[in-house]
Each structure stands twice: as C-alpha cells, then as structure tokens.
Design goal:
One of its GO terms (cellular component) is membrane. With 296 residues, this protein is of the alpha/beta class. The chain has a single domain, classed as Rossmann fold (3-Layer(aba) Sandwich).
C-alpha cells in the first residue's frame, strides 16, 4: 500500500490521481480518504489530486496513545504528505477537522500552500460553547471506547448537521454511514481526545489570522450552525479570505452538494492561479456604513 511516513514514524496511507498542480484533500473526523471521491474524480481531470487517511484511520497507522494525536500533529501530517511525495507547495482543501488542520498549516507553513480551502471549520470555537464542546467530545470518546464505532457511528451519522445529507441523498448518506462505522474504535476515540477536544479556539488565533496572506476560501453550509459564526469571524480577520455559504446544506457539504462544492472551489483555484486573488480592500473595513470614513 502506498504510504508516507511522518516525523514521529506514523505511516499515512494515500491515494492520488491526475497530473498538474497538486491539491491535497484533508478529511473530516467522520470521513477518511474515501470521503473525497467526488472531488478526486472531478479535479483529477486537471490537477494532481492527493487524498490520505489521517493517523488513527486505517489503512494508516493507529497509534495506541492519545498523546500521539493533536492539532499540531494533524497540521504537520499535511507537511509529511507533501514531503513524502516531493511536493514543494500545493492547494490544501480541508473539511471540518481537516479544515482546522488546513488553517493551522497555513499559519505555520504559508510557503507550502498555494491556497487554503477551509470548509466546515468552527465546531466548539465560541467562548460560550467551549465547555459544552469539551463535555460532548469527552463523552463521545468514552462511548466510542466502550461501545465501538460500529455502534456509535450510526448515531454520529444522524447528528443535527448530517440529517440534511440524509434527507437529500439517502443512498449517498448510507454509504457515508457505512464507511464511518468501519473506522477504528481506538483511532476514533484517540482522535476525539487528542485532536478534537484539545484544539485551540479559533477566537484565540486572531493574530495568526490577521497575518495570513495565503489565498483562503472559507466554505460553510447555511444549516451547519456551529460553523456559521466562526466562519464570519475568520472572514473578518483573514485579509486574504472570502466566504462562501452553500444554501440548505449541512456539514458534510462536499458529499451532500458535490457539484456546488466543486464549482465554488474550482472558481477559487482558477482565480488564485490567474493571479487575481487579492487582499481585502482596506476601504471596505474603514468603519463607514454608507459613505467613506473620511466623509463622515
């Protein structure tokens, strides 16, 4: 099986297709390398597309200790994929957990990112939700360890931001649920404890956001409630960003609305590659409502 090896010796399984400018797809907590199939097929016609399984998701290695899992590890595992494949820089596209990793990758390794697509990013970020998020992640990790992913995956797949997918595309959602229930119990529990529960709040990263100049696309579903306010927050603070909101859409947006998601991301990539993606015009944040600030 093709794999790259991280700095701490973890083997990450990957697949790739196509030729040209590279795109690396980084999956969400409830997904794996298979979650990006609609994007691999679409973008693989014009790009070199790579998708991989995060640590804890077979056929990648499943480290036994929760300490082998963290936001920093998830960020650096993207770099390990690039290094292992001899890629200097790539477009990085991440969803949810993968969106957090993509954003942090842009903070730490901006020279390795041609662009950042940060989709469905924001769960548990708000100050008034931090304690609730901590309790829910701890409880979920404990339940996974006790009951196994074959059981817990079924309830996770019908969360409040997943039912939109189920309603629109029962067949696609069933495939998603089946794949989720196949995940490693140990890897899923450790990822929940080490990455999800311990990641820093987006609201504590204002300085990093304001310094980010890598072209950044933020994408949210309008029924993905936990991500809506954090998405606006990122848009306001990342000067190189744009915000796209997909209508009547939940969290699993790249599978729920693949054609729309692909079109939005493709337009973004083309704009970046044509050199037309610019920083936000400072006049748009001058404080004026109707008239320019100097006229007030």
């Amino acid at each position: 099986m093709p794999h790259v090896t991280t700095d701490d010796g973890v083997k990450l399984y990957f697949e790739e297709v196509g030729e040209g400018t590279p795109i690396v797809f980084v999956h969400e907590y409830a997904g794996d390398w298979r979650s990006w199939e609609p994007q691999m097929r679409h973008f693989g016609r014009r790009y070199r597309c790579i998708t991989y399984c995060a640590r804890g998701y077979p056929p990648s290695d499943v480290p036994e200790s929760p300490e082998a899992y963290s936001q920093d590890r998830a960020r650096d595992d993207i770099r390990s994929v690039l290094d292992g494949l001899g890629i200097d820089a790539a477009h990085i596209v991440g969803l949810s957990m993968g969106g957090f990793a993509t954003l942090h990758f842009g903070f730490r390794y901006p020279d390795r990112a041609l662009s950042l697509t940060v989709a469905g990013c924001g769960y548990g970020a708000q100050a008034d939700k931090r304690e609730q998020f901590r309790k829910e992640t701890e409880a979920t990790a404990a339940r996974i360890a006790a009951e196994g992913m074959a059981v817990v995956g079924k309830s996770y797949a019908i969360g409040p931001t997943r039912v939109q997918f189920q309603a629109k595309d029962p067949r696609g959602w069933k495939e998603f649920e089946t794949q989720l229930c196949e995940h490693s119990t140990l890897g899923s529990a450790n990822t929940m404890r080490g990455v999800q529960a311990r990641r820093p709040s987006l609201y504590d990263l204002v300085d990093e956001m304001q310094a980010l100049t890598v072209p950044t696309l933020i994408v949210n579903g309008d029924e993905d409630e936990p991500c809506l306010d954090p998405g606006n927050f990122m848009k306001r603070n990342i000067p190189s960003s744009a915000l796209s909101v997909l209508p009547k859409t939940g969290h699993t947006m790249n599978l729920e609305e693949p054609a729309l998601f692909n079109a939005v991301v493709e337009d973004f990539l083309h704009t970046v590659e044509s050199g037309r993606w610019t920083l936000r015009d400072p006049r748009s944040v001058s404080g004026g409502i109707v008239t320019p600030a100097e006229e007030k």
